Amino acid sequence: MPxxxxxxxxxxxxxxxxxxxxxxxxxxxxxxxxxxxPGYLKQRMKLNPLAFYELYRHHNRNFYAEPGFSTxxxxxxxxxxxxxxxxxxxxxxxEEFGTSSRKGTKPxxxxxxxxxxxxxxxxxxxxxxxxxxxxxxxxxxxxxxxxPETISSSQPFLVVMDRGYPSTPAFxxxxxxxxxxxxxxxxxxYKKEQVAxxxxxxxxxxxxxxxRIRHYKGTxxxxxxxxxxxxxxxxxxxxxxxxxEEVLITNLPSEPFGYQQIAELYHMRWxxxxxxxxxxxRLQIENFTGxxxxxxxxxxxxxxxxSNLAEDxxxxxxxxxxxxxxxxKHKMMINRTLSIGILKNDLIYILLETDARKQDELFQQxxxxxxxxxxxxxxxxxYHRTRGQLAGKYSxxxxxxx
Length: 402
Fold this sequence. Notes:
About 45% of the residues lie in helices and about 15% in strands. By secondary structure, the protein is of the alpha+beta class. It is globular.
């Protein structure tokens, strides 16, 4: 099977049994020809999973090379986060990636997936797969270092992180590189400074005393911490429902990033959680072709590529929609589940078409079909959570896209 067909089968993957996947693809691409499952998997084992990683980064470079992508006060808003993916549990996968199960329980093999995600443009900029338990902050630093390979070095950006990320050494390194960040603190992070906060938005001097340096004694960063003695960062108290509050820490300047803008920025971080939900639920990233680590990584990176491609098309459709639908009571958005289903069903015909004019016609048809499927955005809508009630086997609210 040539490389082109090999990659097309993976992009066209539906999550059904592999024999049916191959039968359906060969009927569409090469009528009258067959390929055996062992032969196909043997070819797959020759393909580097990073081929799809490079493919979606190539797509991203083209995307950011043109004006029109969304920013917040001129900054790309990036979110760093990790998630565990359940994978087939075999001796090989347990050795390669480890288990997410508690000690003494049945092991469940899991891959740790860490992503750097452009929230406003809904693009995965960087992704790495590895052990299920990994240092999220260190991985985020590595991914930020690779960003100039995708976006222009002159394009400003800021990074939003959750409670698992705050780290004094990481903050120092990011500040010295001129990287802007925003993170949520746990109650145990900089406890003295949090207790002493006198206003909801304050610049705080954090002293790097012996208790904060001792874990890094003898290292380069430890010596750097001793040398500078303190760092100055901004802490903000943001109210939450039920008389709760969260404390955010950042090096973002007060202008143009006022208190409300900072609260809005951190709220936007939820976009990466939605992205993981899309990958797992709608794109079925955990529905793998086989059990070999190489096959698992191929499936993960090819799914991320499809996700970016779908979001690119959806963004174009939404931009056109905003111009047409100003008269409606509610702002409308494209139905993402249906869009992914349409793309998964029809993309293969565009990839296989050799006539450029017909390719354009097929793509335009996909674009129009996606544009027709609209759902209203109803702000501040809340639903009562019913704990302990299990959904039926075939949920009415979570139909599969394909």
